[in-house]
Structures are given as C-alpha cells and as structure tokens.
Write a structure and sequence with these properties.
Elements lengths: L2 H9 L7 H7 L4 H5 L2 E9 L2 E6 L1 H11 L3 E11 L3 E10 L3 E11 L5 E9 L1 H15 L8 E2 L5
Parallel strand pairs: 1-6
Antiparallel strand pairs: 1-2, 2-7, 3-4, 4-5, 5-6
C-alpha cells in the first residue's frame, strides 16, 4: 500500500451494525425510501397487531418513531444474504430503557420484502404502541390494530 491508500483505508471505518438500515431510514425523499423496498413490503411489530403494507406505510411508521426514542443504537448485525437481524438498545419517554430486534427479509433482487420489529420489555412495548397510535391513528391501514391496554 502507498501512504495515501493506507491513509484512505484508515479513514473509512468498516460499516457498523445497522448502518445500511439507518441509511434507508434517512432517505431524503419518499421515492428514495421506496427504492429499497418491494411495493408490497410489510411491517409487523410488537407494538401493533396485523401488518402495515407498502413503503409509504413503513415511512410513516419509522418517521413517527424518530421523536419517540431518546436514544437508540444498533448493537449487533447478522446477515445470511436473505435476511438481516439487527439487535438494538435505547431509551424512550425520559430515557426509560428498552431493547429489541429488527429483522429485514429480502427478495431475490435484494429489495426489502418484510420488516419485523420487536420491542421489550412489555411495558415499554405498550408505551410505544400508545404513543404511535396517537401519532399515526388509522394511517397505516385497516389491518393495523394498536394495542389499547392501559399502562
């Protein structure tokens, strides 16, 4: 390696857990966001029953979560080519601790076909559900049924 290429190699750290997923979530436009997904992509989550369908529904959901979390960091990533499992931890609602996992499933073209999102512990999953229900209402479609258990 030449000195310049050696410096370049050090300047570009390897991608961290969740970096590619975070880049999708930070997409500037709806079209850029949608380009990462199948048109019939689904979202399943412990914060609601049913499935949200389509890139617009996923963009609305993840947009609403931005103000919910006080902090969030991906802690590990496992890939097998067809799916990616991301584990994460963070805080919400006054930095109360929560953790979970995000499972991304891909089609044969590398597009995201499905997202499953897990939150724990249960009291925080229910608090997240209540918050997101207030933010999103029925905008994710008729198949999404928010948990209504009081905290």
């Amino acid at each position: 390696m030449t000195p310049n290429s050696d410096q370049a190699a050090r300047a570009a750290p390897p991608p961290g857990p969740g970096d590619a997923w975070r880049a999708v979530l930070r997409s500037a436009t709806a079209a850029e966001f949608a380009a990462a997904f199948r048109a019939d992509v689904f979202l399943e989550a412990t914060v609601f029953n049913g499935r949200a369908i389509g890139p617009d529904a996923l963009r609305a959901f993840f947009g609403a979560t931005r103000d919910m979390y006080d902090s969030i960091a991906f802690t590990a990533q496992l890939d097998d080519g067809w799916q990616t499992l991301l584990t994460w931890q963070g805080g919400a609602f006054g930095n109360r601790p929560l953790h979970g996992a995000t499972l991304l499933r891909y089609d044969a073209h590398g597009l995201i076909a499905g997202v499953t999102l897990f939150h724990a512990p249960l009291d925080m999953a229910l608090a997240c559900s209540a918050y997101l229900r207030r933010q999103l209402g029925d905008s994710l479609g008729r198949e999404v049924d928010w948990h209504t258990t009081p905290l």
